[in-house]
Protein 1
Amino acid sequence: MSSHAKPALAVIGGSGFYDFFDNEATHVEVETPYGAPSAPIAVGEVQGRPVAFLPRHGKNHEFAPHTLPYQANMWALRSLGVRRIFAPCAVGSLRADWGPGTVAVPDQLVDRTSGRPQTYFDGGGVHVSFADPYCDDLRTATIKSADDVLPMKGAGTMVVVQGPRFSTRAESRWFAGQGWDLVNMTGHPEAVLARELEMCYAAVALVTDLDAGLEEGSGVHAVDVFAEFKRNLVPFKDLIRRSVAAVTETDTCDRCRVHTGVSLPFELP
């Protein structure tokens, strides 16, 4: 890949979102100190600008949320030149008024995962600021790119659970009782690893279901989640393309830089 084709922008596709480009794309295999990423990274164009695309779960959904190579994925994108990432994902809603087909651009994250490697800093006194986990520039680009097809919510708190199981009704009610809005299985550690590598990052969440505590019945089923995501995939992809096109700056914004006050324990690619 020539230097002028290095992508500063990237999209990480979630469940059911395994390709992105309508035009021709180049597939790049990247090895990292953390192994291979979920799949070769596709580099194509959006309105004449090079953009990288990585299917989070692999091309054929090989990886479950708790087995994803998060460190390799983020490192691979950074090594190709990426500085800003849109991260589409499927989520359950913890609010009855945010039904399936709603798009939310969360501004806060709660981590309820366990056992996932969630840092590149295994030594030294490095503590990364994460008070605001998502990039305001990218969030604004997505919010302004919304149309009338998919209802848009411009903020919200997303709680990330370990998976691969869905929540019990009691857990779901507990999450909702905390004032949290969305539940997801992949948003952490992806967001914090992006911050450690000084990449802007924004989750763009498509609601596929009401979580178990919000309605009667047999609970959430994966087949229904995938079906709802597929039903909205075309307008959701269109929204992501418009969001990418709306980004004017391609370097990391100042708020998403690490600012640890010490030298990094590795050389950023």
Protein 2
Amino acid sequence: MVFQLDDELWFPNPTLADEDGCLAIGGDLSVDRLLLAYQHGIFPWFSFRDQQEPVWYCPHQRFVIFPKEIHVSHSMRTLLNKNLYKFSINRDFEHVIEQCSRLRIEEDGAWLGEDMIKAYTELHRQGFAASIEVWDQEEKLVGGLYGVNIGKAFFGESMFSLVPNGSKMALIFLATTFVEMGGVLIDCQLETAHLKSMGGRFITYEEYMRLISDQ
């Protein structure tokens, strides 16, 4: 069953999501609703060209990376040791989210449209969303990622690469920095071969909620 949201600030019990994780439709992308969603493992994901209202998901099995378990391959270590790239946090959030959108905007089902960009930029402005940037020697942005950061959990939203391994370098920098900051969990939302190769694995929703609630 997929629930219909209204103007009130609420979500149904996340465990009632269907087999694909779809839980609800409607509502808005306000800061308050987004924060309520992420605190319960819920996130918006919908094709902005095909769907007028937000669609909210909460998968029963959660694909995550524990920062301390990030897998750095020999080739990635070699690349990083060359010091060809510099890294930063929140230096250019707007450019990162724009690049994430631009590289996928023509794809069927593209979800990072104008409304989503505005919503997460406002989350960033209020201190709840963060970006990682990768810069080359000419100070050109060549990779990065962004997501929502609440307490000891980072909820990854999207990443991009303009050079080989640009997004991998951003994720490794996020994980190593997050460990130093006391972070315990990076939520990947969806399984990909790319993320699995870097240490991503499934945990139950119950364990997931225990970890993101233990602040």
Protein 3
Amino acid sequence: MSTERQARAKGRELTGGKVLAIFVAGFGTIFAVNIFMAWSAVATFPGMEVSSSYADSQTFDDRRDAQEALGWDASVDIEGDMLVLTLVDGNGRPVYPAALDALLTRPTNRTEDQALTLARGANGVLTAPVTVSEGRWRLRLTGVARDGTEYRHNITFELRG
């Protein structure tokens, strides 16, 4: 081997210090990414759904059966800057609950959440102005039917450009 070749090979020699540097850089990157992901998950978590899962579960079946007996079907569409909610009964007739609250949320954070003011539109639809961008959204409906039955429904949908 020529002297020049030996000098180049010696510069690329794998020493204990280089191996240690490779391991520290590799695992350091893994730890940094894990810490960032954990922090992001905790910082953007929207919070709890109910204060006591056990207490809520005690009446869940009765509430679900009563809501299913209503026979309501809800669907959502975005037309420009308007959310269009169609709420119909089992016969396809429009339904107007005694009270209905609508919250448009992102499933992963609260920065774009919007409490909606629904207005009656033509043909039994409810409309509300919204500001939305591409991605996954959830419309949370909570209300009361005219007979006093609680109504809760989540509609998850995705907007694409």
Protein 4
Amino acid sequence: MSLHDDLDAYLIARRQLGFQLKTTEYLLRQFCDWLAERGSTEVFTIDQAVQWATQPLDARPVWWSQRLTAVRPFAAYLNAAGAQAPIIPKGLLPVRTTRCAPYIYSQSDLDRLLDGCSSFFRTVRVAATMRTLIGLLAATGLRIGEATRLRITDLDADQNVLTVHGTKRPLDRLVPIHPSTTAALLAYINLPERLATRPATDGPIFVNAAGTGFVIETIEQHFRALVDSLQLSVPGQRRPRLHDLRHTFATGHMVAAYTHGADPARTLGLLSTWLGHTAVENTYWYLSAVPELLAAAAQRLEPDIEQSETS
């Protein structure tokens, strides 16, 4: 068998365990093609893996690390199957991951994004798609991939509930939504410009000109262009992302818990379920880079500190 055949078997085995591996497949196919161009169709060495991973030479070290990280479990899989493949040490090309503070949208930012769709996008369908998507992400904290994969049958308009199909793991969940969100989704579903694309009655909620589902990259390109047109970007900082709407949703709920006397621990547990995290620890880590939340927590603690100092 060639390495390309081994890769196909590896991807099937991993996906049966619930992994998506979209980026991993892209990188590993590049790696196998690169090896084949050099005459290595069945085996490879650690040096070859590192040589491929450190391309391009002017890329950031974190990119090199990500490329080698894609190869490492594939090599271990081949080694366990008896192939002549190396075990790649974890210490090779190490990069400590640093977390950028997410952009927390203000209500004014959200209003500008929603209002700006109709004037920025040229067609009614695209404007309505982006406005509805942005509003849905802001109101529910869904991942963009979860939102674009929503189908008509996933919306229970009578109960105001969405069935959300997980992206990182095959774990579906029910997400309650406000009646106004249900109304906005129904208005979009019945939009004449959307219906003109002849979408399937049980197909995706959000559709392109062909009446089929959007790829995430297209939505993200539309959003980046909208953000730039509104000049939401802060000089010297990363451009606000669609995923930051998820951070904004989570942060807003936690800040409300701290400032309105609710139980932050209980709110965190509810958020973990709502966001589709498999453990509360994941949600805690997810929120740890948000300065607004740290400030709210500090304000909550101030009365206790003052009381202890005076007692």
